[in-house]
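input
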Amino acid sequence: MTNQTQIFGIRTIIEAVNAGETIDKVFLQKGLRGELFSELESLTRKHGINTSYVPVEKLNRLTKKNHQGAVAQIAPIDFHDLEHLVINVIESGKTPLFLLLDQLSDVRNFGAIIRTAECTGVSGIIIQKKGGAPVNGDTIKTSAGAVFTIPICKVDHIKDAVFYMQASGIKVIAATEKTQNTLFDVSFKEPCAIIMGSEDRGINPSTLKVVDAKAKLPLLGDIESLNVSVACGAFLYEAVRQRLSIND
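output
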């Protein structure tokens, strides 16, 4: 499937969730009430589906159809199971390089990161079920189609993925300015996973407490931070540089 599918109507979305469709995001009308609407709300919470409450005008822009206060986007890709992916990568004999995105919100940044990740041989990308950018048409376009070739996993919490990586012998490195170490001080040669934070808040403080290493980019100008997709590219290519040097 190459384009995101949009469905609308409360009962239709309930049926889609119950049928096991991969719902990427549900938009619900603010202030709406009713038994069926409450059932949909409960269902989205139960399945951990990314949900936004929006004005009716937003829903009217999403579709001209009778949406009944609910519009859902079905993801254009199938998400991978984290445990299976990690096991498969380790068993392949390749040195794992994973990318964890902590609630990145901009779809174009997300797409650009996916494209760079594919070009740098990233084993898989892990995102959180709630609060992050959806995989939609803009993501696909910005990724130049890479979204269809690199495995993407969804987890309840990024910290869950951190713990699983560590239990699997994979070092977790946080890209954060809250350290004295630059990315040139950290080894990316062994199995590792890099965490990139959201555009406005960075990496969750509770997640920062459990990582194995922290690294920042040296900034020589007056602006205090880089665009997250650019910063991610710098980290990934430092990993590539170090790993290529092993074979020199």
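quick obs: The chain has two domains: 5-74, 82-246.
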